[in-house]
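Two proteins follow. First one:
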Amino acid sequence: MSTFADRKISTFAEDIKVPSKMKALILEKFSQDFSGIALKEVDVPEPQEGDILIKVMASSVNPIDIQTMKGWLLSTFPISSLPCKTGFDVSGVVAKLGKGVSNFKIGDCVWVDIPTTQYGKELVMGAFAEYAIVSAAKVGFAPKSLSFIEAASIPVVGITSCQALKAVNLSKDDTILILGGSGGTGSMAIQLAKAIGAKVITTCSERNFGFCKKLGADECINYRKIKWVDTVKDVDAVYDCTGEKDVFKNANKVLKEGGKFVTIAAFEEAKNHKWERKCSGGPLFMDSLKVESLDEVAALMEKGIVKPSVGKVFTFDNVIDAIKESAIGHNVGKTCVDHTATDETKPKK
C-alpha cells in the first residue's frame, strides 16, 4: 500500500502543527546486539538561531549508524553523554525556522545529513525521530523527481562518494576500482564515477552483477571466488567501501604509479601503511557542514544521470529491525525507514 513518503516530493501547506512530544530512537548504552537502543517519547526540539526543524518523512540506515550504536567510533565521533538521539539521513518538510533563516520557508521539502560535527568533535544526531533539528547551512532542497524514501537514501552516501572521488582526483577516461559496489555507498560511487566519464571496475557477489552493471559498472568481480588483487592491474584509483583486511597493501599492488586510494572503512590499517611507487591515499574525513556536495548530487539526480538505490523499507515503528537487518551486511542498496507509515499501512518488503 502506498504511503505519503512513497510519492514524489511536493510542497506542503504552511500550517504544519508541531506537537510538543515526539517519538525518537534513543541510544541509551553502547551494545553489540542493539539492546541499548529504544523508541522513546521525548520533547520536540526548538530551533535555535540558524536552525531548521524538519518534520521527518523518511530516513535511512548507514554503516556509521551501526558503528556509532556499538561504540566503535568514539575516538572519531565522541559522544559525551547518553542517552542521545540517533541517525544521520533525513528527508522531510521544514516545520519551523530558527531566527535568521531566510533561504527556507515552512513547507519546503528538504534532505540532509543531520550530524552537526566534524571529526573529533561532539556528535549530534537525530534522524530516527518524528522531528529533527539541524543547521540550515547543511540543508538542501530535495530533488522533486524523487520520493521522500528515495531522497532519504542519498545524503550520507551522496556526500561521501562525491568527496571520495574528488579525493582521488578522478577524471574522464580514468579507471577506478570500487570495492563493494552493491551497497549504498558503492552504488552511488559507480554512478558518480560514470557521470565523470571514468571506467568502473567493482566487487560484488555474482547475484548482484546485474544490479551493478545497470548502474554503469563496466566490469564486476565476484569477491566470493576471485581476489581482486590478483586480477586488477594499473588502475588510477581505488575507492574502498568495505574495509576488508589488507586493503591498503593490496591497493598498492593494483594502482598504477602515482595512483590514488581512499577508504571510508579501513581506519586502523592507515596508521601503519607506507605507500610505494608514489601512490598515496587514506581515510576520507567527510565534511557535511556545508551543502555543496549534496547540491551537486541533486543536480545529477534532477537530470536523471544518478538514481537512488533503495533496498528494503521498514516502518518507523520497526526502525530497530531496519538497523538489525542492515547490520547483517551484504545489503543491496540502502535500507530505508518510512516515517509516514504504520505496520498496518506498509509491511516491510
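Second one, unrelated to the first:
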Amino acid sequence: MLRQLIAFSTNKLIPKQRNNLQVSLQHNIKFLVPANNHNYPTSSTAASSSSPRCRHLSTTTSAGITDGGASKPPYSLTKEMAFGIQKSTELFVKHGVGMQKLKDIAKEPRDTNTLVQRWQRMMEAYLGSQVHVLAGLGYPPNENGLYLYNQQVAMFMQNTDPDTQEKLRIGSRDLWRTVLSTAFDISIEEITQSEMDIVQAREAMYKVSQKMQSKEILDKVADQCAKLEKTDNSAMDMARKHQIVQDTLVHDVYLGGTPTLVQELGFEENGEKGYVLMQCIIAEHQNDPLVAQYVGAGMMKVLVSAGIDMAEIEAAAKAMKGN
C-alpha cells in the first residue's frame, strides 16, 4: 500500500496523460521516483486525459511496432538486455526525438506557473523514448509494457551482483540528469555541485514531510478537492484530485512562503531552478528507508485530505485496464 501511495508524489506524477496513470498505480515505488529498478523517472508518472493522442505512450509504427502485434516480451531480463535497454534509451533521449522535445521545452520561458505542465511534457518525452525501445523487444508499447519491464528489472536487480547494480544505477542517474538538464536548461556541473549526503537528504525530506502534513496544506487540498464535481469516470475523478495535489505540493510545499522550503534546504536558486535541482539530487537517495518513510507519511496524509483512498486507486486501475 505504501508504495502505491508514494507513487503519487509530486516528483513524477503527471495527471494529464491517461496511459501513465495506470503505470503509477501499478508499479512498485518507494520514493519520488522508482527505487527498485534505479530507473529514475520511469513509471512513477501518472496522468489522465481523454485526448486520443494520450491513448498510448508510443505511436511509432514505421518499424513494425504496433499495439496489435503478435510478438511477445522476454520472460526475464539478462545483464546484456538490462544494459542494452538503458543504452538504447540513452541514444533516443540524447540524439533522437526525445532530445528535440526536451530542447523545445527548454526554449519556453521560465515560469513557476507552468512548471508542472513542462515537467509533465518532459516525462512524456522520456517515457516515449523508453517505450519505443521496449516495443522493439516485444513489450506492449503502453503502460502495461512499462509495468512488465519494471517488474523484470526489479527482479533482476535483486539477484544480480553489487557491481552490476551500481553500474545500472549510475547509468540511470546520469540519463535522468541529462533529461532534467536539457529540459530546464541547467548544466550538469550545477547538478553535480549540489549533491547531498545521506544525512542531508534525510533532513531535507523530513522537513518536506512535515510541511506536507501541516494543517495549511492539508486544508487547502481538502477544500479544493471537495469543490470538484464527481463524474462517472473514476479514473478521471482521481486524476483531477491528483492535479490539485501536485499543484499544491509544487507551489505551496516546495515553492510557497518566504523563504521557500527549497531555500531553507540550502538551494540558493529559488523558484523553478531550485526545485529542479532539489528533485534531481534527492533522487540519489531514493532507496534509503528513512527517506521513503518520510515521504510516505506525508503523502498518506495529503492523499487522505484529497479524498483519495486505496479502494479508489484500485477501481481506477481496473477501469483503465478495461479500456
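SUMMARY FIELD: The mean pLDDT is 77. The first helix runs from residue 2 to 6.
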